[in-house]
Task: structure prediction
Amino acid sequence: MVETNTTLNVPTREEVSETNQAIFDNLKGALGFVPNIYAAMAHSDNALKNYLDFSNAKTSFSKKEKEVIDLAISQVNGCRYCQAAHTAISKMNGFTDEQIIELRKGGASWDGKLNTLANISKAIAEKRGRISEELKQAFFSAGYTKENFVDLVIAAGIINITNTFHNLTELEIDFPIAAEI
Result:
């Protein structure tokens, strides 16, 4: 049977596989709810687990640094869902509203190292990975390592997956809406 409805809904726990039901239970226990973007990934028996394994894997970046990457790239990609989610997460990680806006714009005037990370993250998204040697050198000069560089590429890939998924599905945003900039 050919599917004619091209809109992805947010399935309930009862509408997903047993594997995804267990993931929903874990998410609800950890977060208090199942974010719509994760629920919609559960239309696939494999995608949600694969995505969560990938996105929750160990990284050389701190939680704050990870948010810098996610905010800058989500802004470039115009993903309102991820802007909202990562604004909320960034607040939990100690960033102020003003800092979050600046990070979304690709800067961090209060911290040179985070400023470099925000700059390179924004450039990676804008240039689709074709960034200047000067920007790469600035990254390493700021104190980041080759391990960080590899982890930056992975982090950019993860947030690009989420940004693309939401931009294609336009799921309802279930986090406080982030300011438009």
